[in-house]
Every structure is written in structure tokens, then in C-alpha cells.
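Q: Protein A?
A:
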Amino acid sequence: MSEPALYLKQNVAIEPLYNQWYAWYYLITPATAPLYVANHHVKIMQSFVANPAIHVAALKNPALAGGPYINYGVERVPEIKQLLERTLKEQESSIRFAQAVAELDKLLATANGHSLEELYRKVPDILQGYVELTYDLNNRASPRFFEALLYGSPHYKENAQSLSLRLLKGDARPYVFSTPRLDSDQDTLHVRLPFRHEAIDQLFAMRRTPGPIGPVREALGLSAQQGELLSAFFTEQPPRPAQKYEGDGVRLRYFGHACVLIETRDVSILTDPVISYDVPSDLPRYTHADLPERIDYALITHGHADHLMFETLVQLRQRIGTVVVPAAEGGALADPSLKRMLRKLGFKNVVALGEMDSLPLPEGELIGLPFIGEHADLNIQSKIAHLVRLKGRSMLMAADSNAIEPRLYDHVHAMVGDIDVLFLGMESEGGPLSWLYGPLMPTPLPRKMDQSRRLNGSNAERGTEIVRRLKPKHVHIYAMGREPWLGHIMAMGYHENAPQLIEARKLMASCAEQGIATSMPLGQAEMFF
């Protein structure tokens, strides 16, 4: 008797994991993953095992929700201790790699402008052949990592990648970057497969195309017990049909945060894909069921986890034609190549777009524009704003651009002219440098210095400068982290008088005075041009 054809339920959530921690791009790239394991994961687990009560007490304070505190009760100490011991054993080479990077930094601090050739033989053995030693024009020495070689080396630990799957009953999920996922978590299916594996595509294709469970269960390599849990993730109920756009203009659908679906009759473009699951909620939203069968282009503005979210991208991989990322060759610890990483993760067509580069689209083009700010003054080139031109309309997805240097937009305007629609993020406070990049730094910054280096976008004054110089007809404030399905990665906790919202409303009021249409969408919105 043949198996029935079933659909994957719309509330099945996936979490890509690295060594059981929620994966983002610094946990994929082989030069950076060891530093986060050694300088972040191990330290948090050691702290929890030594004194779990501190973690439990800290997380009773909502203001500390995004801090380095494990979100488990004291009864989970044995499991965290077991994961810590396994990490120290299985990731031993990663820990040595991280130690070697620190030693290399001290070695290069001794460079005095003379030739670096003699220092090569002093490079720690584990790094030899994987780094080039260089000076900048001020005679400051730094290493350049050969990322392509590291991906082909034992330092790229694909066997540390896995997936957890479970059914969601609502949007609420605990903050993920400070707490590992444990195998004993109830109603969770842990799948030991690398992210590139085609079985993942086979599974998530069943959101829209029904099929028997057996072939998927076999492809995922599940045990009989795991197979029983997998069966709970399927249903005979088909998803609601997506409404394909057949109009003569351009339709924009806001899916939350920085995710916007831009469609004409001939092309579909999805920006910074972060998609809600279909769960009970009073907040209307678009979900996976509202996406078109084919996403021609997925645009990534930068590598922060709320814009480059593997949780969504891995599910959509089999539906995406081309992924467009910022052009950066990699080699610097803080600025790995997104193109190389995504290709390694099974995305077959990845295009790197540089500043003012153009990519042809049906009845239009995509232009990469400079994106400054939001990266705490680090020299990171893996960031770009996307100017989408379709059917005579222009839409700028500016992400978290911060107009630190307003005259930049005079030069941009001279080359691209007025734009019709501006989407701008205004998380004007941002976390300090160390919150995101601390594990990469050889020595901690003094607190005042750290607090001055923010991961922030524009405030009202700087947003006004962008508007004044690019002359948009419509301004939409997005990427604010207000949607409840982003709580597990952002822990924003806005209140109505939060400074970010105050600044956003100031910009909207300024635009309204100038006759510029504005909005700050929440959950979902639809626009036509």
C-alpha cells in the first residue's frame, strides 16, 4: 500500500545549529567559527556550570535578555556540562586555532615596518599556509586569511552542523545566541546533516508540493523513533494558494523587518528574507504560504543575523534562483566572503554586487549603492544597499544605513537621480561593538570606547539628510525588529516611548510636512506602484 501524499505543516520551524548553537554566518566561516566557540560558547557554558543561579537571576530582568546568560534552569546543569566537555574534546582543534589567532596578533604587534618575511616561520603551526602577513600604508601589520583554503581544510567543521525541527504554537521563542539547543528538548527533532544537504530541500519543498514521508525520512537518515516525530510535522491540508501578481505595475509586500517581496508580472525579488511561520496570532502577517513558487532573486544587504537568516534561507533554497550579496573577497576576520560561504552551503547561483555595479532585471535593473554605518566603524565591505528599478519605478532598500557622512548621498544622487520609494531602518541606538564582534577581538575594548562604537542606523536627523538628498516620494521605516517572530534573534523589547520609535516618528513627521508619504509598517503591508 502506497503512502499518502502529505504537506509539511506551515508552523514547522527549523533552527540551523553549529555545535548545537544557533548558526549565523560567523559560525559558518572557518576562520571565525573557532573564535566564537572558544571565546563565547565555552565561556558562557563554563559560567553556567560554575554558577547557574546567576544566569537564572539575570534573565528575570528583561533588560538582560540579550546578554550572555543561558536560558535554562539549574536542573539542566548536567546537560550543559556534558555539552561543554564534548565541545572541549570535539572542538579541540578549533580552540587551538583561536589561541593561535591570538598569538598571531601578538606576533604582528612586534612588526616595526621592516619586511615581514622573517615572521612567517614564527606563525603558529596550525595557521601556517593559511595566512598572508601584510602591512597597510601606515605600516600596521595584519593577517589575510586564505578562506578558500580553510573551507577545504579540517578547520571547516561541517560535521558540527545540524538542524532542529519543531512545531511552533506561537511567535514567542527565547533568545538564541546565548543558549545552546539540547538533545533532550521535548518535541524537537534533531537531524545530523550539513546545511548543504539536498534532503533539506526535499523536506521543505513539501510545504507546497505534497509527497510521501518515507523518502524524506530516509533522506534525512532518521531512526524509527525520529520518524514517528517527523510524521507529526505533516498534514493532508494544503496551504492556501499564493496570490501571484498579474498587474501591469509593481507590487510590494512587506513580510516584516527588512523582508519585502517586490513583484512584477515577470520577476519576483525578496529582500533580506526573514519569514514568519503560520501560528495563531492577532497580528496579521504574510507567511511562507504567501511567497511565490519561484523567487527569482533574494537580495542580502549584509551579514547580521536579522538580514542574513539561515533559518529562512535554508528553507527557501530550492525556490531561489539567484542570491545577490555584497561583494567582498574575504580574508579579514570581521569581513568574510558571503558569496563563498553561501556557495558552500548549497546555493548554486550567488552573485556578488559591488558599489554602483548593475545587474539586469526583466524591465529594469538592480544597482548596488554604498551602505555606511551600523558596523561599529569596522572595515567591513560585506554590506550594500539595493536600488531596484522596475517598470520605470525605483525602490531603495537601504537597510540600516546611517548617514554619518551625508554628502555621500549627494554623490549617489548625481549618479542615480531621484528615487520613488525609500525603505530605511532606524534602529538608532544599537548595541555596542563587543555585543556582536567581541569574540573576534584579541583584547577587550575599554568600556567607554566600546559604548561609543555602536551597531546603529540613522536617527531622525540623519534620516532627514538621506531623504533631502535622494528626494524620495515615499518613505517607509522598516527593519526595526518590532515583529514578534524576531524576538529569538533580536530581543528588542520596544515600548512606545523607546528612543528608536521616537526618532522614527520625528522623521515621519518631517516627511509629512514636505508632502512625502510615509509609513512604519508592522506585520504586513501591501503597496502598488
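Q: Protein B?
A:
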Amino acid sequence: MDCCWKEGRCSCRASRAGRPRMVLGGLMVVIGGMAAPAAARADDMAEIRALHAEMQRLEAKVQQLEARHGMASGGSHVLAGRTLRSGPRSSASSTSVTNPSGQISAMPDLSRLTIGGPALSDDAQAAAAAENTMTESIVPSQPKLDLDSSSPLAITQAGVDSLPPIFRIGGVSVRLGGFIDFSNIYRSKNLTSGPATSWGSFPYANSPNAHTGEYRPSAQLTRLSVLLQGSPTKDETLSGYIETDFGGAAGTANSYQTNSYTPRIRQAYMTYSNTKWGFHVLAGQAWSLTTGYTQGLLSRHEQLPPVVDNNQIPGIVFTRVPQIRFIKDFGRKWWLGLSLEAPQVAYAANGGRHAMLTGASDDTISSSDTTLLYSNAGSGMLNPNARYSMDVAPDIVLKGALDTKPAHYEVYGLARWFKAMAQAPGGPIREHVSFAGGVGGDVTVHVIPRYLQFTGNVLAGQGIGRYGPAMLPDATFRANGTPAPIPEIIGSMGLIGHPTSNLLVYLYGGVESAGRRTYTGADGYQYGYGVNDLALASCDVEQISGGSCDAQTHTIADLTVGGWWHVLQGGYGAVMTGVQYTYLRKFAYKGGDGASPTTGGNTIYVTFRYLPFQ
């Protein structure tokens, strides 16, 4: 029988085909047909049993989707007071839904829309969706926006994996995710910073900006993501993921009439997964493998704190850079990953006191100073106003992980290399390379399943400042111009609670601390990082011009509390609002005059988000 809606009524007629057809959630499966030879009948019966099993799985998914859109679940659908049976529909069919006025309207079934190229058969598409995606086998589709995780994807990663395909291009499914964000930011000290707080830039008392606050509303965190997935075989999946926001600021960007902030790449990568071998590959720009994960080591499952600030909070370990990554899972319980990631080194300036540490090639230096070249201005498609380090090899991360029911554990090692060109007075130009790196670990514990999680992370080593949001320097230099990696530690702990299904609250504390790496020059003064013979009393002298303060940061610590309220959800999407407060303290190394500059400040976020795809 074929059924259709016409003028608010359901009419049915016999199908032209001589065999029945059943439709579940937009998938049309043809069962029966002409008589098969006796030799093939057993294979046909096995296929029918497999199709029945798949139909049951799809029926459960249909019930979830109907519940999300306010429709009745089960084999019958109650619409505008009528009880209807599920009937067949063509590839250009529409789904009847009830609008708020009680009338039935037609909604096109976009999940079956095919654009160009040969489409996969219905059963092939079902098998691919059921068996072959890298992430859906770990996190199933949710009937509503899910805040039960310690790092809810809808907040941290746009939650695209839990959404159904919008349409298909040939055999590739297309999912859309993202949100419209409006953030109101207040800081007790003026950083002139957008929605990504420059945690290491809180000014000391000498600066007039330390005596005034700033209010900065922004829509720059508005985000759009696209997930493309296809399955060459039942065991393989190819996917591409693009995530962008408006955190770019070109030279013409301002806040006078139109701010002109530009889209930027957050993530853009391709993946290959083979579930039979437990082998996964990622290539492109993504979160570093040093970032913690909620489970496994696969992309879009990073343990990112559900905070509003786009620069996370001090103590979290992360970068988001181009890389190539290889992952092997052993029964989805034990994981081993190797990642080769784009390098970049942040060298420490020495308050302008030592010419070789200022980074410019035209410094006025004395005849006894070693001349250095360790960075260059960008060209081509790089930013000409930024300086890029001279790199030897990619940063290498080797990580192991274990998933258990009560907790997820990780341990990893990080290797880095720093390079500089040095020339002693009257000598040849020499290349100097130094090794750096560290060891780290992460843990996520389900203290009270679904209600309370504990997370913790730590990274300790030399030359790891780049991996913390406070951006402490990676390295300084020795007397002969060799890069000297700075000892550092980065760490945080957090509690994430879920008092109700639509409320998430969190509490985090974090710290980033840099050690000393100094030498004494021929003039008797200390050079490098963490020196203790600087005159720092001026850091506390208030001057409208800012004065001089050569303080070098020792430690940055923070305490952050916040939460998200899931206000609305339905066929129109979801609405959320978030509030966050962070208290920060910054401590400098003690000067030769006994001064120990400190500073700190408060940040408050009030954020509203509309998630149209959830």
C-alpha cells in the first residue's frame, strides 16, 4: 500500500510493485520479490534476518527523533488527533509533523537527499552508519542535548556527531553543527582582549590599565562545524571535519562601525578508521594529542573544560595545530597514539636589557655580545606582523590510555627541538639545537555516574610553556647562543556536576609555573629567565605613561567557577545560557632590590547561545 497526505487526509492505494514495502525513519528496504533459486534461498533468508535486525535498530532511532520533535513514538504516529500507521514513502518523500497550531505540515526528508554521484543502496547506508563511524560507536545519538558528560560536546565541540545527516552527496553523509554565541565580558583590569583572555598579560600597578576595568561584548565565538563521512567498506570510514569561528582579526578589524572580524580555522582535518584492525589516522589541524580525552583517543572526544573563555583557563594543557596522528585501539579499552605536530617556540625577552634576546635583527649591540637569529617575520600566507621560530622537527607526542567503567587514564611523553643561529664577535655563524620536552598525564573519574566527575591533568618538563593558556616562555639562551629550555609545570583539577538534566556546574583550579634558566655575563649581570638582580621597584609605581617594569613571570594561578543552564529545546533547536567567574593571580620573580611584583584580577562572562542543529 502507498499512503500520502492530501488536503489534511490520508489516502492509500495499492502499490504498483508486486511486493510489500516497509519504511522506518526514512530508510526504504525492499523485501521479497521474485522466487529465488533453491541454492540462493538460504542466503536470502539470512539477509532478511539481518534487515529485520537493522529495522529494529532504526525503529528505536525513529522513536528518539520523534520524542525530540514532540511526536509520538512506536509503530503508530499520533498526529493532530489521528492515529496513522507507518507507510512507505519514495526517495522524495516528506514526513508529516504537527505544528504548534495543531495542523499537519510537510517536512522534507533531507537525510535521503542525494546530490550528484552514485548513491549507496539503503542497506549499505544503514550498515555503514551502524558499524563504521569513528565516533558514533563510542557516543550514540542522544534524544536531546546531553549535559551529563564532563566535557559536553554541545558546549566544547558543537556536538555534531550526535546529530543526524542533513543530506548526502553520493555516498557521503553531511552533518552540520554549531551555535550563535553572544558573550558579555567584564575584566577588573583592562587587557584590551577579546573573548580569549590573555591570562599572562594582566598588568602590574605601574600601568594605568591596572587601575581600570573593561567591558567587552562579542559574537566572535559563534561557531559552525561540518562533518562529512563515507564508508568504502563495512569496516572502513573516511571522514572530514571543519570547525570555524570568527576569532580572526585582520589589519582592518576594529570596533567603530563594523568590527570586520574574520573567520578562522579552529579545526580542519581528515580521518581514516578501520574498526576491524582498530587502526585510526588523522591528518590536519586538530587539538593536540597532549590534550586530555573523555574516553579513547579519537578526535572530538577531548576532555576540554566546559568554560566560556576561548583561551580555556590557566593549567589546561592544549594546542590546536596541524598534525598527523596514528591511533591503535585494543578492544576499545587500551589505546596507543603517536602524533607529529607543527612546532613553534616562544622565546623569553629579558625586558630589553640584553640585546640578543629582543628578537630584532637590527639591535644595537656591543662588540662583546653574541648576535642571534632565532625567528623571522612571516611571508607568503603567514602573518607578516608576527615572528615565526626556526624549527627543526615536529613536536612528537606518544600517549597511552586506558578506559575502565569508573575512570579514564592517560600518560604521555612530549619531545621538542629548538634552533637558533649565533655568531660570536669575529666568529663564524653557528647553528645551535637543543632538546626539550616533558611527561604528562590525565584522568577523568566518574565520582557519581551522571552526576559528578573529577578531572585532572599535569605536564612537567622543559620548554613546554607553549602548551599552557598563560603562554609562559618556552626557552631563553645560554651565553654562546644555544637555546636554553625553561623548566615548567602546568596542571589543573576540576569538578563537574549535574544537579539536574538541564543544569551543569563546574569548579576548576589551575597553575602554570616557570623555573630559572640564567647565566652570568662578563659584565657581572645575570641574563636569561628568572634572574634576581633586576630593579623592580618601579613595577609598583603608578604612572600614566606606564613607566618601566622588567618583571619576569614566575607563576600564574587561577580559580574558576561557572555553569550552564539548558533553557529550551525542541524542533526549533536549543537555547543555553552560561555564567563564569575567574580569579587570577600573577607572581613575578623577586628583584635585586627586594621588590616582588604581584598582580591579579577578575573576569566575568555572561553568555547566551542558540544551537539550531541540536
